[in-house]
Amino acid sequence: MQEKKQIGKIYVIGIGPGEEKQMTKGAESALEESDVIVGYTVYVDLLKDRFGDKKMLTTPMKREVERCRLAFEEAQKGFTVSMVCSGDSGVYGMAGLMYEVGRDYPAVELKIIPGITAASAGAAVLGAPLMHDFAVISLSDLLTPWEKIERRIEAAAMADFVICIYNPSSRKRADYLMKACDIALKYKSPETVCGYVKNIGRDGECSEITTLAELRNKKVDMFTTVYIGNEQTMEISRKMVTPRGYRNV
Amino acid sequence: MQEKKQIGKIYVIGIGPGEEKQMTKGAESALEESDVIVGYTVYVDLLKDRFGDKKMLTTPMKREVERCRLAFEEAQKGFTVSMVCSGDSGVYGMAGLMYEVGRDYPAVELKIIPGITAASAGAAVLGAPLMHDFAVISLSDLLTPWEKIERRIEAAAMADFVICIYNPSSRKRADYLMKACDIALKYKSPETVCGYVKNIGRDGECSEITTLAELRNKKVDMFTTVYIGNEQTMEISRKMVTPRGYRNV
């Protein structure tokens, strides 16, 4: 039996939400070890100062499959490659697509290096909204039927999950957050404590704590992460706090 | 008007799942800056080698309120304090309770430093199970009525979320994972791809990919994180992979 020959290695790295200090030490050493860094233009630019000696390859948005192939082609040449994603590479990142595309490159080894996802980073800005069971839902209907997204918001609201929303808006989907709030309002009180954070860990970071009724009318962009509390979520000293359970402190 | 005087400062830090390399640089600098480190005995022990010069204060499990008060008392003396949690301090961690207890210590500043939560770290071990909408549910009924937990599993399964389960078992709740799987099986195929990881980032880390029907009969412990796939989750080269959407690569 012939042994499968390992040719190259790819780290699929979550670099966190933007600030260098939110990157793990494991992500940093994987980047240091790499010959080539591949990623979406914006994220690779964030690394140019510190890893400028590496070969950098980028593709724009919506060219993700091509980006994966770029990484595998470099690894096939024997290089160690980092595929970088913002946040966690395993949460709406490139990890899954890399395994899918990787079926064509069986000799390349993949290693996933997790990062701080927006749900965690934004929660830390707002206070402690995710202390209890929560659902993470993207409102992007680019690759998911909107009916399925609606069904998930409905189920999460019905069962009193804290809901964390990624991609709440874009030019083509300006009213999606309003639609999502209207579904949540079928089950959750209009006074439910909610919050959102824009540009987590980047220039222009800002956040607000509000109610579900008010969140419905907020204009947010695609760089915003939104949190809808559960029935116990409260505001303490201008922070959004979900208790860890149903007994009092 | 008299200005509120800030006395001390507490970092509420997620140190990640165990391995030093999964700690963020921000968590490390906060620990370095601190005079006192407070936490659950097991996690503080992990830090003794590197931060042995700090004052260390610990309380055992189920003494969380007391642990919070210890931290605030030290901060009131003017010290900079780190309250450490495994994983992310904001996900089933101490962040929420710290804000609750902090109502009695209004002059102490709290800053939450997020970490890699088990959902992210375990996902990276298994492959890429969390590439699409997911629900995080703890099976611990210590502070949550079991009926509420059941309702959340049911809603998440019905709406085809990937489900990530924390605290799937303990001595007193040996059959809770079985119960959770039985609820999921009402909506998800017995062939649904599932996985679990024990001791993420620690000695004895191990993982397995299985089906929902088989997961039902697995014996897992409280240091295990469990993943139930959505209807598109698949196994690729012995990894658990959820595609990012509903279009083919």
Give a written overview of the molecule:
The structure is a homodimer of 249-residue chains. Chain A is α/β, with parallel strands linked by helices and 249 residues long. Chain A is built from eight helices and 13 strands. In chain A, the strands form three sheets. Chain A has a five-stranded parallel beta sheet, with helices on both faces. A five-stranded mixed beta sheet of chain A has the order 7-8-11-9-10, sandwiched between helices. In chain A, helix 3 crosses helix 4. The first copy, chain A, is elongated, with a radius of gyration of 20 Å. The termini of chain A are far apart. The mean pLDDT of chain A is 93. Chains A and B meet through helix 1, helix 4, helix 5, strand 6 and strand 7 of A and helix 1, helix 4, helix 5, strand 6 and strand 7 of B.
Topology:
Two copies of one chain form a homodimer.
Chain A: E1 9-14, H1 25-33, E2 36-40, H2 41-51, E3 55-59, H3 64-76, E4 80-85, H4 95-102, E5 109-113, H5 118-126, E6 127-128, E7 134-138, H6 146-158, E8 162-166, H7 176-184, E9 193-198, E10 206-211, H8 212-215, E11 224-228, E12 234-236, E13 239-241
